[in-house]
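Homework-ish question, so no full write-ups if that breaks the rules, but can someone show me the predicted structure for this set?
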Amino acid sequence: GENVEQHPSTLSVQEGDSAVIKCTYSDSASNYFPWYKQELGKRPQLIIDIRSNVGEKKDQRIAVTLNKTAKHFSLHITETQPEDSAVYFCAASLRGADGLTFGKGTHLIIQP
Amino acid sequence: EAEVAQSPRYKITEKSQAVAFWCDPISGHATLYWYRQILGQGPELLVQFQDESVVDDSQLPKDRFSAERLKGVDSTLKIQPAELGDSAMYLCASSRTFGTGELFFGEGSRLTVL
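A: Not a homework solution, just the prediction itself:
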């Protein structure tokens, strides 16, 4: 089955700086790669996703890049703000929301 | 805004007891998922329903776990008997239909087994 590795497990950045979280996946057939944000004590929520026919996608301060050849994808957050503090999970699947395999998460800490 | 409802939010039980969790997906969502999230890890899929049918239960420990979605709407996940290693957050999620992109998660049911 699919295996998703996520790094780093904890990331601390100064407010206003950029943050990058990286994931690798094992199944070359995977074609859907979402990122979920989970604030402390709250439910995971989708923040951005990308499909394998696209190399990059942006939404305001967040962007995701995908390298299918290397089987890795990354989340980029620019101009970080205190409300960006959360755990971020990457995931991969063959069929949209079905059978998503999640990474172990990255705890992003925004320091004032 | 419609949300996935789950209950109870918290459950403390002793090992060997039975526990049950309930989930009501967003109205009209045909696909329902139960995930288990152990502290410090990502969600792990236990079972997926399309309407009332099980699509994937390959990761469900069937000797002690069961799940049903009898009328294709709300769902129940049961554990009997509970073991210490079952302590985790049980998350329910729904999506509009099979293969669509976004999962909508509930707030979860946190289980502590003593």
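Now go work out the reasoning yourself. Hint: Chain B is about 0% helix and 50% strand.
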